[in-house]
Model the fold of this input.
Amino acid sequence: MKIDLLAFAAHPDDAELSASGTLIHHKMLGKTTGVIDLTRGELGSRGSVELRKQEAEAASKIMGLDLRENLGMSDGFFEVNEENLRKVITAIRKYQPEIILGPALEDRHPDHGRAAQLISRATFLAGLAKIETEEDGKKQSIWRAKAVYYYIQDKLLKPDIVVDITPYFDKKLEAIMAYSSQFYNPDSKEPQTPISTKEFFEYVKAKSLTFGRSIQCMYGEGFNIERTPGVNSLFDLK
Done:
């Protein structure tokens, strides 16, 4: 299956927190969408790998994804090395995305920035003919996405572009809440984390409002870019 818009995430729930509104928006535009998680989030303080998998499946249904995969890298310890680059290259060539969404270029969690470096390099290398990869025993064709946009996560970076997600903000919150083990639950006996406080969803809302304000809409999701984008007309810009 060819995927138009493919998001990579260091952990299950990363894409939901920072790019689910954009994924839902483009799904409603008729695009195929998918998420590939690099790790299973096995070092998370709350929940379990099995529970996170179930939550990811529930969130995927809410977002209407056409694809959800996990590359099984080591949470907290994966590196930008040949083994992991080849895993991402293989995935990119398999699904041939027009646009890739990657984790934050820098963030509180060191996995996020390292994942962004991994996605950036793999996206370029996937277009080199002398790097050979296989899928189901067959040689893959080269592929290079048109663009990579890095979604902003915990650290409030200044966005280069903002996507209006106003019609889909409630659905975004629903997708995030599918990860009930990770967020506020007054009955939970598990340790509190920076994202499990009662106030955390106020931060999610405030950040979306802040991004939205910058383009004169209610709610937005912000992205950073490495390569300058072009437009056919200045009137295409909002």
About this structure: The radius of gyration is 17 Å. The chain has a mean pLDDT of 96.
